[in-house]
Design goal:
Layout lengths: L5 H4 L2 H4 L12 H33 L2 H25 L4 H8 L11 H9 L18 H8 L4 H11 L6 H4 L11 H13 L1 H32 L11 H5 L8 H5 L5
Helix pairs in contact: 3-4, 3-6, 3-8, 4-11, 6-7, 10-11
Length: 261
């Protein structure tokens, strides 16, 4: 066995062969476009990894484990937003020069981002229609649609802190999105006032939620400034579809009580 090195530990020789521009002659900015989106997919993979841990922490009532993980996810969201600054250095005319080479490929086909939405409780069975059943990861995405979400496990955590969670939430249809609940909001407000350590977690959750909303907004504006009102690649619905999720919180109960604090 050869000794372990930086390059073979990270499998760099393989990694650095995965950027394959399709424009002929090569369009300079296509390399940037590929690297940015591959990097996003790596970060999505890490976020899925972190939120699976958060689900376990919530179910176990592990406050400090959840706090640590939410600090990380919040920081990753800041990196995702910052990457848009780099992508915005590419002009609309530069993108147009290789856009046709994308053919039917579209960001709407990002299985991992849809997984992340489903995992966080923003479930829309209709999004499955943008991904063909034979696409790699389709089965994963479909499975996520039927799994408990981070919000469902957050209810478990609240119960470990003495909260009364309504039966209809504990027995809900898991294929439907999570939504606000006034009884849950009262329990969270009580914990804000009586449990300072829980309030740290709640604020970190709100920070992440705000970061995700910021990323969505910046993404919409990036698409608008790049392709305007055109449909997305592969016939995807473009800006109107993206705007559907703008300002939709992942943890609506945390936002609903701000005026009562």
């Amino acid at each position: 066995m050869p000794p372990l090195t930086y390059a073979n530990y990270l499998d760099l020789e393989k990694l650095l062969t995965l950027q394959n521009p399709r424009s002929t002659p090569p369009e300079h900015d296509e390399m940037l476009f590929i690297i940015i989106h591959q990097t996003y997919e790596l970060w999505f993979k890490q976020l899925l990894h972190e939120f699976e841990r958060i689900k376990r922490d919530f179910s176990a009532g592990d406050l400090f484990g959840a706090i640590h993980a939410f600090k990380r996810t919040r920081t990753i969201m800041k990196v995702l937003v910052a990457q848009l600054d780099i992508l915005e250095t590419m002009t609309p005319s530069s993108f147009s020069s290789f856009r046709d080479r994308l053919e039917t490929a579209s960001g709407f086909q990002s299985i991992q981002f849809r997984e992340l939405e489903f995992l966080l409780g923003y479930k829309r069975a209709s999004t499955l229609s943008y991904v063909k059943p034979d696409f790699p990861g389709y089965d994963r995405m479909k499975q996520r649609l039927h799994e408990a979400t981070v919000v469902d496990r957050f209810y478990d955590f609240l119960e470990t802190r003495g909260a009364q969670i309504p039966a209809e939430l504990k027995n809900r249809d898991l294929t439907q999105p999570n939504g606000p609940n006034e009884l849950v909001q009262k329990e969270i407000l009580r914990l804000y006032k009586t449990s300072p350590e829980c309030s740290i977690l709640f604020e970190l959750m709100t920070d992440f939620d705000e970061g995700l909303q910021e990323w969505r907004y910046r993404h919409v504006k990036l698409v608008e400034r790049t392709i305007g009102a055109k449909k997305g690649t592969g016939g995807s619905p473009g800006v109107p579809f993206l705007k559907e999720s703008l300002f939709r919180p992942i943890f609506p109960d945390l936002w609903a009580i701000r005026h009562e604090m």
